[in-house]
Design brief:
Length: 169
Amino acid sequence: LGQGGMSHVYLAQQKSLERKVAFKILKSNLAKDESYVKRFEREAQAAAKLVQSNIVQIYEVGEIKGHHFIAQEYVPGRNLRQYLARHGAIEPVMAVNVLRQCAMALQKAGESGVIHRDIKPENIMLSTKGEVKITDFGLARILDRRSDQALTQIGMTMGTPLYLSPDQV
């Protein structure tokens, strides 16, 4: 389905429940570094604690023979970057709909003490049914967790430069 800085994502079949899932595997070169493994696991933990219709749901996180994975909700459709590349600027009504759904997801995350920190078109999925789903909590900051300090250094900027919030810049 795609790849990011830390992982490859495949379409898979969860046999036990007969459903499609997005199967995210930490890149093998990063799996050797404990800080990346912890960050990968934290992504699953951050997203798993958020139950909201506009956030991709996590089904399982684990490791098999040194391969770290996250099994998560598969969203048939495309991300916002792909949509824009294919269709150009979106109509105002659709833009408001996308923004509204993203805002609801981010509000739920914030209320749960999770700050996404990497909202960009590639992390906004548009389903074929018109639903918007936020994905990729790999750079999320989980408030009130001691383990977060070990993964996020003070003074270190996290996120995609063109999409950083003003306070990060």
